[in-house]
Structure formats: structure tokens, C-alpha cells
Write a structure and sequence with these properties.
heterodimer, A: 2 strands
Amino acid sequence: MNSVILRAGTRYLAPLLLLFSVYMLLRGHNEPGGGFIGGLIGATGFVLYAIACGTAEARRALRVLPQNIAVTGLGIALLAGLAAALFGDALFTGQWLFLGATETEKGLPLSTVLVFDIGVYLVVFGAVLTLVFAMEEEI
Amino acid sequence: MTDEPNAAPAAPGLAGLLPVALSAVLFAGFLALVPQVADGGAIRLAWDWVPTLGIALSFLVDGLSLTFALLISGIGALVFLYSWAYLGRKPEFGRYTLFLTGFMLSMLGLVLADNLIALFVFWELTTITSYLLIGFNHEQADARRAALQALFVTGAGALAMLAGFILLGFTAGSFELSVILAQGEALRAHALYLPILILILAGTFTKSAQFPFHFWLPNAMAAPTPVSAFLHSATMVKAGVYLMARLHPALSGTEIWMWSLTIFGAITAVFASVVALRQTDLKQALAYTTLMALGTLTLFLGQESGYAMTAFATFLIVHSLYKAALFLVVGNIDYATGTRDARILGGLARTMPVTAFAAALAAMSMAGLPPFLGFIGKELKYAGALAVASEPLVVAGAILIASALMLAVAGVVAIRPFWLPPGGAFPRQPRPAPWPMLTGPVILALLGATFGIYPDTLERALVAPTVAALLGSAEEAKPLVLWAGVNLPLILSVATIVLGVTIYAFKLRLRAALARAEAALPSFDAGWDRFLKGLNRVAVWQTRVIQPGVLRFYIFVTFVTVLIGAAGTMLARGALPALPSLSTVTWDGLALSLLIVAGAAIAAVTGSRIAAMAALGVVGIAVAMIFIVFGAPDVAITQLLVETLVVVLVAVALLRLPALDPPGTRDRRPRDAVLAGAVGLTVTLTLLAVIERPLDRSLTDYFETASWVEAFGRNIVNVILVDFRALDTFGEIAVVVIAALSAYALLRTTDKRRPE
């Protein structure tokens, strides 16, 4: 699609969507959001870019193959699940670390659950882009 | 059908001797157990495998399983040694050794297993390794066909047997054989006894190639000769016989057991020995005599008497010894001359004296001549047959015919190729076989003679313990003696020899008559081909009906099915919900519903795909707004995003599709409208019926309280996704990845240059 307005708008919108997707991913544990939604929003950014500038351009901007992203995400999610074994828990039991926690402040919560959610994000992101790019290139 | 042995007789790498050492060590180990088992001490080993299902990896060493284990490992060692010289220089020798070693270990597992499920696993492992070994010469079409045929026939039987095992396990309350065997009385009286018996016999009859499932075994001779000697004569085909013997204490003693085993065994034995005489390929002739032996063993397992069981145990050992020896002898003949055709072969005694000697010994054992073990085996067979309670004369008659024919076949294999003048030119100048190919036949043939002269060793060590495993007491075993005085079995033996020699003398004329008869009778092998062809035709037909490739048809069928299933159930049960009062309707709910209805209506009536797409997008967004109104923001966001992406994807695809309903096509929309309306009504009624019931909030309450305390998160939806139900989510994202990759592969394989 050759539209100057869309291309100009996409140049600002796509990075915003990506940034927003990470925000949605990170806040997901307490507010609406999470890996699934974040991944979909992130993918929308690149889909928009592909519509405006073509798939070839979008692929160049992505730098890696989307299917590699999806498979990497699956691996990360699996590792997050396996990590529980190191602590002697059942598979996929969440492990938490509260950095700098005091009596009153709970500190910075880090967890394998977050790693798992990042894996979900990458899977959804990569899978959707794999499909959309392939469809657009095929047709 | 000939496999090609080594071109050069030189011995290959020494690594090929490793499996020989392995099986020899195993054989020695089993031999060391003989004194303990002979004293009545069965050995049991067990480890938990799937404890929640009551499946254990347990092993039982008693007389029966030890006899089999000794035969498997002992003949295995000799066959490995033989193969080393026979195939060792072929590039595929490594693979061959792997398959054959795998087979031997699974076969040992099969006979030693004390758990039905473990036994089944080993059973199927032997089926698979047998498949690989029959198809070893995979470049030959008939080897591939024979391999597949054996796999299908025995595999189908094994599936039935698995069902039988499960029924048996639940009926007996345990999958442990040692427990099941102690419950014979209760099992025989149980209502499920008949189904159990039929299902298990389906497995054993196919594995042991009983008539009418016999046709795969002669075809399996496409395997290299050492494989035929090991699997399709001495060990694997006896797995079915082994299982019938193993379950004898639990299932035998009923009319149906006795008759089915006697009838099928007798038919197989007589039929096979008649057909064996007709064969001109020595290996095929031996294959049919193997069928005869399997039939005889089955026949004896149908009985209860001590004579029959002693005959079973003795003939089992006798047959394995002489048949493995003769198969290896035929391998040597093939190796030396390049042919196995009985009509051409002759005069080989001068070139291969050792092979001729082994062949003569083994054949005399097979023919049942004194002083060989085969003679004792035959005497016991007659004694066992005469002890049959119901029809001793029929059974003895069947054995008389089969034994006489065996004697004739023994002559064909051992006299004709070695001592008579050749009937034609050989494909190659005869050469002597190297020593590893002579060791096996000679040792096996000599064992047949030794045990014939000193039968009491064998009786004490193996036969009596086997009978004890079958009947519960070693006292039931009858003595193995060469000279039992002038009695009915001896007279029958003399009659057998006279009849057999007569048949041998007239074998050419008989062969011609049999060939004519065979041509006139329907062939099971051809029937198998017809069956497979018919199966393929049915598959093609049903694929054409169910999978026409028209998306509309799939959706139509799906919705019709939903309608019949859901609406049908609701109507049949008279569970129509009451109409809810309109007072619960809110303004925003009403407005969104109207939006959905409008979008759906436009999508249905518009003639443009893009307009329909946009209208459906409206429906999707209105549904998302309903989620927002009712406080499910996560679901709403997901719905909106998915909706957006679907519109993009479908819009891309739509560009390529032809216009909706080109002029001239029949308008299907009235029919579709009726269906859509009916489905919509059903879904509405279903939802109304669902909300009539009080909502079960126990899960919601649990997650509401546990989410923060246990998983440190306030967004319950997300906490469930990534923590409480993380394993499910992992499965889902794995599906997402697989779906994306498959779609990618499909999109990329379509040819872009294809004309539209």
C-alpha cells in the first residue's frame, strides 16, 4: 500500500506500539495485560509497518526471522518451568526473588513467572508475524 | 527371494563378534540358574514402573521361561556367529546386528516378563524388529511386502491381545502373571472368560502363524537365512505358543480352550506339512514344516494330560534344535551354490562334508528316527495324542500324517542336495562354507543326538520344570526314554516311517498333484492383497465424501452436527429453559446487542466480501465491548487485538478470492439462513439454560484469595495463565508455534507460478 500519510504515521506509531507492548507485558501481573496481550500488541506494530512499507522492509527492521523468535520464546518458557526443578519444586512452580525487600517494602519482585511470561510474549509475537508475513508475501 | 551372502569368504571385523559374546554370556547366566529352577525354585525380580497403573517391570524365571531363555540366547549366540561370516562384509552389517541384538533382548524380555503390560511391550518390540529384519533387503519389493504383511497381521493380533490383557488384568485384579496364574478357577468361571480368551488367542494365533493366519510366515522367508533360522523358526514365532503355555494354568481346561487349540493346531499341522512337500525352494519347505511344528505345539497346549505337556516341552526343544540347524544348513547351501532349488541341487556331500553331516543328523532328528531326540519327541507326541480325552484317534491320525510328511521333507532337505546327482547347473561353482557357518549347524545337530542318547539330563533340567510350570507339579512329567517297550506309540512310529518313506519315493508325482490342487484352491496370500486393495479403496472413497476441500461444506457439516447434538439433546430431555424476565436488560447491553445483530445481518446479506469482513469486525468489537461492560478487561483487550489481526489476515487472503456467488450459481443463502438461525437459537437457549443454574463460585473464590497470597499477583487472569496453570499455557504456546510453523511451511510450498 503506497500512502505517505500511513507511512509517516507508522514511523511514530510502530515504536510506540512496541514500547506499549512491553509495558503491557510487565504490568500484566497486577493490571490487565500480560504476555499474550503484549505479544499481540507488539505484533500489531510490525503488521502496521508491513502494511505501510512492505514485508521486505518490515523483515529488515525485525532483523531476525519471526519463526526463530517464536521458537526461542518457547525455549525460554520451558526453561522458566524447568527452573523450579533446581529448587526441588514441581515443574512450573513459580520461584520468586524480592530484591531489596525490607519489613515494609516488598522490593523489586523478580520471578520465573515473569520469565515465563516473556516466553509467552515472544511466542505470540513471533507466531503472528510468521503467519502475517508469509500470507502477505504469498499473495 | 534369495539374499546375497558375502562375495568373499574372508572373515570381517572382530567387532561383529561382540553380540556373540553377549548372547554367550547370557546363555551361561541362564544355564547357571538351571539347578535352582529344576529344584522347583522359581526366581522373581520386580521394579516399579508405572506404580499408579499397577504396571511393574517384573521378571519370572521358572521352567518354562528358562527353557525359552536358554533356546533364545543359545541359538542366538550360534546365529550371531553364523551371521558374522554370512553377512559381515556387507555395509549394512552394523544395522543388521543392531536389529538382531534388539530382537534377541526383546524376545528374552518377552519370555521372562512377569507383567502383562511389560510382556506386551516386549511382544511388540519383537514385532517391530522382525519387521525390520524381514525387510532387511529393502531394495526388493517382495521383501518390503512380506515385512509389511508380517507387521500388519501380527500387529493387528497384538492389538486384540492387548485388549484381552487389559480385560484379564482387571478381571484378576492384577497385571502380574504370577498372581493371575494362581486364579485359574475364578477366571474360568468369570463372565468375561470368553472375550478374554478370544482376544488373547487372536494375538497368539497370528504371532505363531496358525491357520488361517499362516500366510505371512512363508513370505517372511524373504529375510536373510540366519534371521529365518532365529526368528521365524526357533524363537519369535514361538512367542504365541509361549504365551498360550504361560497362560495355560489360568485359562486352560475349558471346552472352548481345548477345542479351539486342538482344531486350529491340527488343521495347521496337517495343512502345513502337505504344502511343505509341494515346495521346491528348500527354505520355503522348511518354513512350512515350522508351521507344522507350531500347529503341533498348539494342539498339545489344548490338552491337560502330563503326556501332552511332556510332549509339548520335548518337541519344543527338539524342533528348535533341528530346525535352526537345518535353516543354517540351507544358508550354507545357498552360500555355496547360489541356489536353494531342490530340483537342481545335488552331489554337494563331496564339497561340503561337514554341512552334509550336520544336515543328516538334524534331518534324522526331524524325521523322528532313533536314537535322536526327535524320536523321543515323536513317541511322546503319540503318547500325548492317545491321552487326549475326546478324540484320540483324530489327533493321533493328524500327527501321523504330519510326522510322515515331515520325514519326507527331511529327506528332501538332507538327502537330495548332498547325495543324489545334481538336476541342473548351479549358478556358481560350489565352495565350502567357512568355519563360523559350520559351528552352528554342527553343535545344534549334535545336541539333538546327544540328548537322544542321554535324555534324562534334558528331562531333569528343562522338561520336568517346564511341565511343572504348566501343570503345577513336576510329578506330572513323563519320562523321556529311547526304548519304552513295544507299545502303541512305537507301532505308530513304525507306521510313520513306512508312510514317510513311501511319500518320499513318490514325492515328484505328489508334488505335481499338489501344485494342481494349490492352483485350484483360493490363495490366502492373494486374498491379503485383495483385502489391502479394498481397504485403500474404502479410504479413498471416505476421504472424497468427508473431505471434499470446500470450506462451505465443512462449516455446514460442523453446524449441522452442533445443531443435532445440542438441540437434539435439549429437546430429547425436555430441558428447555424458561424465558428470563426483561427487567434484567440494561441499556448498554441492549445497544451492544443491537450492534451485534446489525453487524451479523449486514455480513449475511452483503454481496461484497470486504463489506462482510468489516461487518464481522463490528460484531467482534461489540463483543469486546460487552466484556468491558461486564468487567473482563483482559479478555476484551485480547478480543480486540485478535479481531484486528484477523481482519488484516483475512483481508490479505480476500484479495485473492473470486467474487461471492458468481452469476449462475444456485443461491444457497436461504438454506444457510435457516441453519444459521437454528444454530443461533440453540446457542441462545443453551446459554439461558446455563445461567438458570446457580454459578459455582468455588474456583473463582479460590483464585481471588490465593492469587495475591501465593502468586503475588492481583490480575487473576494473568496469574492463572502464567502461574497456576502454567503447564497448560506452555502446551498452548507450543501449539501456537507448531501452527505458525506448519502454516508457514504450507504457504511456502505452494508454487507461486501456478496458473490461477
